[in-house]
Structure formats: structure tokens, C-alpha cells
Amino acid sequence: MKIMPNRLDRGFYLYQKEFEDKALEILRSGWYVLGNEVSKFEEEFAEYIGTKHCVGLANGLDALWMAFRILGIGKGDEVIVQSNTYIASVMGISMNGATPVFVEPDEYYNIDTSKIEEKITDKTKAILVVHLYGQSCKMDDVVALAKKYNLRLVEDCAQSHGSKFNGQITGTFGDIGCFSFYPSKNLGAFGDAGAIVTNDEKIAQDFRVYRNYGSEKRYYNKVVGTNSRLDELQAGLLRVRLSHMEELTQEKIAIAKRYDEELNNSKIKLPTVRENATSIYHQYVIKCEERDAMIEYLNELEIGTIIHYPIPPHLSEAYAYLGFKKGDFPIAENYADTVLSIPMYNGMTEEEQTFVINAINRF
Ligand SMILES: *Cc1c(COP(=O)(O)O)cnc(C)c1O
């Protein structure tokens, strides 16, 4: 049985008729960028998250870099971020000229909040939390620190659509929640898409202006903005998927539960969820000292896996200019060498799950 790490087609066929009807409706409408579908999606997504505002954007990276731009954070400023994140989180900071300051992750693969305070200097302007793999960071600590040091708080929710800490949904703890709807995310479009959520009307309005060349009124440009508009097709298709978000999320949680209960191999460490936190299992990430042998073994059985992520940002070529070397963030480096995301997607059959479980247990 051939099993890929992700099957985006399955997610399409789950609601094929609804997606196709919506796509045709939009194609026939004659309106393709920033229209009714985008406004409706923004309304519905804000309601889903529980914020006053949502602004649709072209992708998740735009949400991140525009967040710091709009908060006035740039050259000479420092932003705290975890050392094992996806590179986009870090680029969102550095594209503004600000300096990312790395903090090691905890056993849940999220920022270790006990190590944040020692990294705060008089240049620190913000904390960027990343709810990695779908699980919320320890937000009570983060919110307290942001308050104590008067820092801005931005959340990278590209992997955490709907996950919670102490019952509160991620994206609502800070100034801005940044979302990606890249096809593989838990709420995925059929191309690139993103959004921010906020309760601050001024911030929301700034994003609306920024995403459209800095203009509020056509051809009257207030600031040097960008083109980060969400198109109608993606927004409409996202509305279809969003209307099924509860069942899609529960399906992934159920697959994770099976993995939790049935994976049994002393060579691997299963993911755990912190007390008071929830995970929507964007990825199901196991840890294995013999990871590379495990990948090869699974490949032979035609089971695909992915490493999220093989190179921590501080060691990537793009950030050589920061001057870090191997050994500077040993926990992130260890994770890069040992983590493995196993197949997990909406529409994964029980048979496929069983095949993966049996294969890993026999390794
Ligand atoms: C996917 C992702 C992003 C970037 O989103 P894009 O829509 O691909 O630009 C940012 N941060 C994290 C943690 C992600 O997983």
C-alpha cells in the first residue's frame, strides 16, 4: 500500500460538489479579487476565531512581515522567536530589518517560556509565538511577560487553526494573529492564501490599506504598501472548507488518538500535549534517534514521511549573517536531527492508518 505523507486530493473529494459549485459560481460572477467572497470569508473567519476583525491576505508570510511593519518594528529592534520554527516566522521579522532573537523550544516543540526573560533587552519590541505542529504555546506565561516588559505580541497561527490554551483560541492572545491557508494547512485553500485577525480596528484598517498598495481610495496612496490581496476563488473555497472545520479538526484528532494508543515502539517518542493546551495536529511528529534509518525503512514500504524541519533557522544559509554556529541552540538542533512527521491527513482511511501503525511498530 502506497501512503503519502499528505493527500490534498482527499480533502477535495470529501466535499467535491460544494467546492465545484462554489468555484463555478465565482468563475461565472465576473469578480475575481477582493469582493463579496473575501468579505464574507473575513466575517466568518473572525467569527470562528472570535475576534472583531479578520483581513484576508495573499499568504501567511505576508501576514507575518506586515504585522511587524504595521506595529512599527524594524531596524535596531529585536523580536523573540523559538529556535525550531519554520523559516517563514523568522523571515517575517527579518524582512523588516529587525533582528530575530532565538529561544529554545520545550518538550512540546513550542517556545520554552522559562527561557524568554533572559533574552529580553532594551531593544526587544515583541514576542512572536509559533503554535508549532498544531499545539498552543504556554500562553499564560507569554502574555504575562509581554505585559511585564510592555512588548507587542504576535502569534504565528499558520499551524494552529482552532487550537486553544485554557479554553482560549490561538490568535486572540496578542495584538495580531497571523494565519496561512496554504493547501497543506488544517484550513487549506487551493493555492496561496492568508489572513490576520485582531481586535484592534486601527490595526485591521492598516492591513486593509497595506495589502492594496497602501490605498484606501483607488489611486490615492497613503503609504508604500504591497500587493497582498486575497482572491475570490480562494476565499470562496475557504468558506466551504471553514463550514466543515469542526469535523475536519475532529477527524485529525481521532487519527492522532489512534496513533497515541496504538504506536508502540521503544525506539520512538510520541508527541504529548501540555495540560490546558490542545492540539489540532497539523502534524503528528514522532522523535527517533535512528530517524534516518526509520525514513529509509518506511520508504521501502512506500510510506512517505517529512522532516519538519531538517535545518533550524539559525543554521540555514539565509541567516549566516547572524553569525550563529552549530551548538548554539542544541535543543533545536537535536529536534532537527530526530523529528519525523508521519502520514496524517483528512480522508486518511483506517486501513492506511493501520498500515502505518504496524510498519512503525515493526521497525
Ligand atoms: C506555512 C507557515 C508559514 C507561512 O505561510 P505561507 O502561506 O506559506 O506563506 C508561516 N509560519 C509557519 C509556522 C508555517 O507553517
From TrEMBL:
The active site is at K185 (proton acceptor). GO terms for molecular function: pyridoxal phosphate binding; transaminase activity. Belongs to the DegT/DnrJ/EryC1 family. SUPFAM superfamilies: PLP-dependent transferases (SSF53383). GO terms for biological process: polysaccharide biosynthetic process. The keyword Thylakoid does not apply. Pfam families: DegT_DnrJ_EryC1. The lineage of its organism: Bacteria, Bacillati, Bacillota, Clostridia, Lachnospirales. The modification N6-(pyridoxal phosphate)lysine is found at K185. The keyword ATP-binding does not apply. InterPro entries: DegT/StrS_aminotransferase, PyrdxlP-dep_Trfase, PyrdxlP-dep_Trfase_major, PyrdxlP-dep_Trfase_small. Keywords: Aminotransferase, Pyridoxal phosphate, Transferase. This is DegT/DnrJ/EryC1/StrS family aminotransferase.
